[in-house]
Amino acid sequence: MNEIIESLYRRKSVRAYETREIPEEMKNLILESAMQAPSAGCQQLYTILDITNQELKEKLAESCDHQPFIAKAPMVLVFCADCKKWYDAYLETGCEPRTPGVGDLMLAVTDTVIAAQNAVVAAESLGIGSCYIGDIMENCEEHRRLLQLPDYVFPAAMLVLGWPTLQQKQRKKPTRCEQKYIVHENAYHSMDGKELREMFAHKYKNHTYEEWCSAFCKRKYNSDFSKEMSRSVEKYLDSYKKL
Ligand SMILES: Cc1cc2nc3c(=O)[nH]c(=O)nc-3n(C[C@H](O)[C@H](O)[C@H](O)COP(=O)(O)O)c2cc1C
Predict the structure, then answer these.
(1) pLDDT for 196 beyond 70
(2) Of 9, 109, 131, best ligand 1 pocket probe by most atoms within 8 Å of the beta carbon
(3) How far apart are CA 236 and CA 219, in angstroms?
(4) pLDDT at 241 (0 to 100)
(5) Is 239 in the pocket of ligand 1 (CB under 6 A)?
(6) What number is the average pLDDT over the span 12-16?
(7) Who's near 96: CB < 8 A, 6+ residues apart?
(8) 3-state secondary structure of 235
(9) Has residue 243 got a pLDDT over 80?
(10) 218 lines ligand 1 (CB under 6 A)
(11) Are 168 and 199 in contact (CB under 8 A)?
């Protein structure tokens, strides 16, 4: 295994940080590495918000489903899918652009999360831990106000970064499903009950599949935060549907 692949296997989310800061040069390297990611037509359809204001971090820790560790991270980045800057550039030159559509948004989200993952990998190589926060897609109205997000700018991912505590370094990385369930040859294959049970066997361990799966569904998929995410994203989508 080479160094890069080893670091991909080693990397796990870090949710508790030492109090020390991330030096500016390292922070800069992480941001520059994000920007080295491929992007559609090299358009870099994202804008990264570097959240340095402690009060703002604390507000985000609350608005992102009450996760206090967000406010304790020395580095907090919000990766926004940005369909506005090119649209504005086109308007500026009078080339009568159509308004951005959902396809443009999907492409921008793709660019955005690829850049975010480059930041994760770069941070890992420096010994800096990271955790994605999906809840940044919730609370559209509040996040638009807090981050001054205009139409056509969608906060696709938040990353919190910092030096992992010893406990976090020693924590076991969650096991992945086996490759045969994740990689389908040539065409999509719908899994039956037997295959689903096998795929998730490492997750339900001492429980039955029914017990584990219904508890997980209640805690995640049917949760209030999950419903809020769909409501909020619908709000962001409104402006893209006016094509
Ligand atoms: C899109 C996305 C959203 C996530 N949101 C959260 C979050 O809000 N809070 C959190 O603690 N972890 C969050 N995570 C981290 C996942 O829980 C974690 O990646 C997963 O459990 C696998 O563990 P690992 O990253 O340690 O390998 C998120 C990860 C992704 C990719």
Answers:
(1) yes
(2) 131
(3) 25
(4) 79
(5) no
(6) 98
(7) 90
(8) helix
(9) no
(10) no
(11) no
Residue 67 Cβ inside 6 Å of ligand 1? The answer reads: yes
The model carries a pTM of 0.97
Q: Is the pLDDT of residue 61 over 70?
A: yes
**Residue 205: per-residue pLDDT:** 84
CA angle, 116 then 117 then 121, to 5°: 125
Assign 3-class secondary structure to 174-222.
CCCCCHHHHCCCCCCCCCCHHHHHHHCHHHHCCCCHHHHHHHHHHHHHC
Contact assessment for residue 217 and residue 78, using Cβ atoms and an 8 Å cutoff: no
Three-class SS of residue 45? coil
pLDDT at 71 over 90: yes
Q: What is the pLDDT of residues 15-49, one digit of tens each?
A: 999 999 999 999 999 999 999 999 999 999 999 99
135 lines ligand 1 (CB under 6 A): yes
124 lines ligand 1 (CB under 6 A): no
Which amino acid residue places its CA nearest to atom 17 of ligand 1?
13
Query: What whole-number distance in Å separates Cα of residue 36 and Cα of residue 43?
Result: 12
Provide the pLDDT for residue 150.
Answer: 97
Task: For ligand 1, pick from 133, 160, 220 the residue to mutate: most ligand atoms within 8 Å of CB.
Answer: 133
Q: Is 132 in the pocket of ligand 1 (CB under 6 A)?
A: yes
CA of 117 to the centre of ligand 1 (A): 12
DSSP, collapsed to helix, strand or coil, labels residue 160 as: strand
